Amino acid sequence: MKHLLLALAIAAPLSALAQTENLVQYAHPLVGTAKMGHTYPGATVPFGSVQLSPDTDTLSYEQDGKYNPGIYSYCAGYQYADKTIVGFSHTHFSGTGHSDLGDFLVMPTTGPLQLNPGTADRPQSGYRSAYSHQTEVAEPAYYKVRLADHDILAELTATTRVGIHQYTFPKADDAHVILDLMAGIYNYPDKNVWTFVRVENDSLVTGYRQTAGWGRTRTVYFALSFSKPFKKYGSRNYDKKEAYRGFWGRFDQAHNWPDLAGRQLRLHFDFGSTQAGDKIKLKMALSPVSTAGALANLRAEAPGWSFEDYKRQGQAQWQQELSKITITSPRRVDKENFYTAMYHAFTGTTIYQDVDGQYRGLDQNTHTAKDFINYTSFSLWDTYRALHPLYNLVQPKRNSDMAQSMLAHFDQSAEHMLPVWAHYANENWCMIGYHSVPVLCDAIVLGNAPFDQNHALDACVTTARQRWYDGLGMYMDKGYVPEDKNGASVSKTLEYAFDDYCIAQAAQKLGRADIEKEFRQRATNWQNVYDARIGFMRPRSNDGSFRAKFDVLTTSDPGYIEGNAWNYSLYVPHDPAGLIAKMGGSKRFVPHLDSLFTMNLPDKFFAETEDITRDGIIGNYVHGNEPAHHVAYLYNWTAQPWKTQPRIRMILNKMYHQGPDGLGGNDDCGQMSAWYIFSALGFYPVAPASGEYALGSPAVHSAVLQLGNGKTFTVTAKNQSEKNVYVQSVKLNGKLLTRPFLPVSEVRQGGTLEFVMGGKPAKK
Asked: The pTM is what?
C-alpha cells in the first residue's frame, strides 16, 4: 500500500499532462554514444543522482606509466562499437572531455563463478558478456539488453537516488550477481583509496568507496537490497601485498564473511539454481554522506519491488520535464532532435544530497542544504554559454538552486573561489576562467536570484581578484596574460574579460558603482591581445611584444585551448560591435566571417586536439567545441544580419541527427544540446548577463515554453519550411521588432514571438 501511495503521489502533479502528446518517445539516450559523443544510454531521471548504465570495457587510464589515449573514448563508460558489456555501474558523466565515476558495477552471470571481467576478444574468460544492439532498448528512465553469454535479460530503471535492476534468468544450475568495487571509469590500479562493505543480512549490503581520480577525494556510500535472499556469498581482495595487514588473516574472509575492507574488492552473491523466467531484482541507493543516508534514500524512494511502477514513474518525470517546451513540426526528425537535446540538457547536472538535505561539502564535512537543493557536476567552461541560460528560462528554480550550490562551494572553499569544474565535493580545476560568474550574474541581472545577491556579487569579485590563479595577477597588472609566463594566454585573457563584463552588469543592477567601474574597465582587456596588423587575437609576451611564430589555423598553437586563433578571435561576446569596429567595420568583417564557414581546415591542424574532430567542423567553424558557439549570430551586429539565419539552419541540420554518432562533438554536460534548443526556437544568449537574446532562424513551426512562474511564452513561425530559412519580420507581443535582438526580461514575462519566414533574405 505504501508503494501504491508513493506512485500516486508522484503521478498526481502530472495529471494535467495526461492529454498531451507522449514526448518521451522522441528522446533517444543512445544518441551521442559513439565517436566524440561520450553520452551514456542507461537509466536516469531528470537531474538524477543515479545514472545506471552499461559499461562496455575496462581500459586503464595509465599505460606503461603514461596517459593511455584510448581511454578518451570511454568518458561515459560506453562505446557503441564495442561488442561486450562488462556490467552496469551507477554513476556516469554525460558528454564530458574528461571523466571519473563508474561506481559500484553490478553484473549477473550463470555457470561457474568468474570474478575476473575477462577481455573484449575473449568475453568467456570472465564475467562480461557479448550482446547485440538488436536486443538493446534505450529510453528515458529505462534500458534493456540481453546478455548473450549468460542468456540473461537485463532491465534497468531509476529514481533520483536509487538504481533499480531486474534480471530475468534462464534455467541454470548456478546464478550469481557480481559486485565489482574495483571497476571505474578513467580507472587505474591505485585509484581506489579504500573500500568498505558490510553484509547486513541475506538480502542487504551496505558500504562505501573512496577514490582518487579527477575528484581527488571522492567518497560514495551505498545500500544494496536484493528481492530474494542469496544462499551464500564471498569476496576476493586483489590488494597488493603490504607490510602490515593487522590480524584479520586469521579469518576466512573469502567465504560468507560480513565485514570487508580493502582497496581492491570484488564480491559475489550466489542464488543457486534458477528456472527459466526467474527474476532477481536489485535496488542500489547512493548517498554522499553515509550508509544510513543511503538506506534512508532507499526507503523513501524505492520501498517496493514493482519494476514497472518505477519505470512508469521515471518516464512520467521525464514527460513532465520535457513538457517544459512543447513544439510542433510536421517532421518527426525535428521532434526527435529537439527532445533528445532536452533529455541531454536535463541529465548533466545532478542532485547531490540525501532526501533529508544532507550532502558532503567541499571541506569534506557534512552540510545540510536549507531553502535550496544542492547540485553537482558543474562543467562551467561549457555550460555557462547556453545551458544555464536555458535553465534560467525554463528551469528557474533549479538554476537558482544551482547558483546557491555554487555559493555554498565558495563559502566552503579554502581558496575562496567559486567553482571552476566541480563534482562530488571536489574542485577539479579543469579548463580555464571561472564561469560560475556568468551563471550568478545572469541570475542577478534577470531577477532570478532569490538569495543574497550582494554576497553573490562579492563572491564573484573575490574570485576575480585571486592573483595566484592561472595568470590572473598578470592579467590585472598588464591587461592581458603573457604567454611566456602562463599558457593558453589569449583564451584566458578573452574569457577573463567576459567574466569581468558579467560582474559589471550585476554590479550595475545592484547599484555597486565602484565595482561596476572597475570591472567595466577590465572587460575591455580583450583589446590588448588583438593584433591589428593581421586582424587576429595573438599571444603576447611579458615585454609586450606579440609572439612571432604564429599560425591562425592550428588548434595546438600556444595561446589557445581547444581552439585556434580563427575561432577565438571572434570570442568577444560582450562587445561584438567593438570587435567588428577593430576588424575594419561591417564591410570587412562580413566577408571575414563568411570565409570561416567556407574555407577548408585540413586535418593536420586539429590532429593533436582530442576534443576536435572532423565531425564537428564546418569549414573552419568548430561547432564541436564551445568557443565558437555564438559565432554564427555575430552577423546580427553587422549591416547584413540576415546572414545569421541560413548559417543557423545549416548548423542545426549538419551537427545534430539521430543515431549513435548524432552529435558533432562532446555534448559537454548539455551545452551542445542547449545550443540546439535555443537555436531551434529562433534566439540565442550570445552574452549571458547582457539581458538580450540574438535572433536567428527558428526550425520549429511553433513552441510553448513553460517559464516556471505560471506564465508561458509562445513562438510561432509562419510560412515555415526547410527552404524558408530567412526571417521576413518578427513581432514580440504584437509589436514589430526593428533590431535582431530580444529582451530576456520581456520573454520571462510571457507572451508571444511571431516570426514570418521566407525563401529570400529581407535586407530592409
From this structure: 0.96
